[in-house]
User: What shape does this take?
Amino acid sequence: MAPNKIVVVGGGVTGLTTALLLSRDGSNQVTVAAKHMPGDYDIEYCSPWAGANYLPVGEPGSDHAEWEKNTWPVLADLAKNNPRAGIHFQRAVINVRAKDAQSTTGQWFSQLGSSDPWYKNVVPDFRLLSKEELGPNIDSANSFTSVCINTAVYLPWLVSQCLENGVVFKRAVFKHISDAAYVHHSGSKADLVVNCTGLSSRKLGGVEDQKLLPARGQIVVVRNDPGVMASISGSDDADDEVCYIMMRAAGGGTILGGSYQKNNWESQPDPSLAIRIMKRCIELCPDLVGKDENGKQRGIEGLDIIRHGVGLRPLREGGVRLETEKIGGVTVVHNYGHGGFGYQASWGCSAAAVKLVNSALGEKSKARL
Assistant: This one.
């Protein structure tokens, strides 16, 4: 039986993971066609800017939570057994302030900071911190073993795994999603297109999903070692500003964040926000900079800055779009709108997309008979 011809549009973590899963059993010939590829740094291309870590935020019983649950074993296995993927384990501490509950960032963190979260039986070493362990103005906190991903290593690793399975990569820009069916490396029209274009699906012809919006994240990357992955449910600086710290694996530096600014398209770092981010991170984790020779706590001058960055999370009202649609005579499976949880849901959500692909291709086979 001839292999199925599939084009995956999008070279971010969602597109690459979906392409890898589709290429594993040899029944599909996969082409990845994308405007941006690993190695690019562009405001349109969210994946390189991510932290990226595993901090579950899905509602209990939701598809989102299921995707995160199914992703953890893969990331943990890679961290333990495949150093080439650029993932390592790191202790996470999630701090919660009751006053943040209704804020933009507090709602984002609502499940993550729960005292009885669904993920407590998924991640190792989950525990609630005692009152004696809480920092100033912190109402509750939990701790567990997480992972942090060096995106500059992990994305090329995904590409390498795809290449080993015969996936072909092409640079391409499409005005209409149906055009993607005609760039398959075989020269023939593809049987199916998978749309993993993230925020670009807002303007992509045939899709034009107005439920998509950016959730702007600004970060500072430093050489300092915090010794822990730490975050807090909100800040006193702004409703949509937050504080998180994580050290990327394999020398990738430490990410200091951040913001969750909905409908903000600004691509350039805001210097004032950068200063607030650095101050918040030092307040949350003084060990980030330590003390000077006189025993005085250092300030932001103690940070060794690598660069500043801005990424636009592909947030979607109503959640991820994961469904099959016929557009211009082309069968399309949509897999986009992952907001700030693309990495930590990537394997679970991509596996769900593959099921839709297999179902759609099965229907096409029946139609031919």
